[in-house]
């Protein structure tokens, strides 16, 4: 079973790239973030023609997530992160697919920091951590994947000294990520590639992709029940180089079994 995550940075603007990647990579499940489209503007017919069932939660101009599956219709569990009934941002969706509970997330950027946006990021992280603890307690296969907007260590960022004041790299954010993982989650990429420089995002400016001046901010966290099934993981880095591509590249894991 191959599961991928991809921040598409505007699904309608990047639809040709998305469809090309889906055909080439053929993930069984794909979690998308940053749709930047209201609910009614999601390209449902094109996704279904590509062979995928889909559920999505859109939002005008910003945010938005979707879960695609060609191994059974996603059984939606929730489309909001618990803990704040007033938070209307479309940043979290959870579905059961083929015996695995998959949480697709788009964690707030948080810049500028300090400030209200950074406070929102930390509170969202706290809500995610609380919910993740409850998911682990179920002792069932769970994956939390998406754009976390955090580089956990210096290895995950090009020239870390330039990012010390950024909301994606501040100590509070890295600590929040490490506390989440410490509950019992496995960072899939780092399990298989503990010391390798791997990026998932390259800015559009200053030829970042060509210089490989990137960040690793898209992550797969696996519960113990999924961790034992992990056989491969990677980044489809070349997709970032396609014309009119997102500034993110798709990330994927492969699990033993159906």
From TrEMBL:
CDD domains: ExoIII-like_AP-endo
Note on how the cofactor is bound: Probably binds two magnesium or manganese ions per subunit.
One Pfam family, short name: Exo_endo_phos
Family note: Belongs to the DNA repair enzymes AP/ExoA family.
Protein's name according to its UniProt entry: Exodeoxyribonuclease III
InterPro entries named in the record: AP_endonuc_1, Endo/exonu/phosph_ase_sf, Endo/exonuclease/phosphatase, ExoIII-like
Feature type site, description Interaction with DNA substrate: 248
SUPFAM superfamilies attached to this UniProt entry: DNase I-like
Organism: Chitinophaga oryzae
EC number(s) per entry: 3.1.11.2
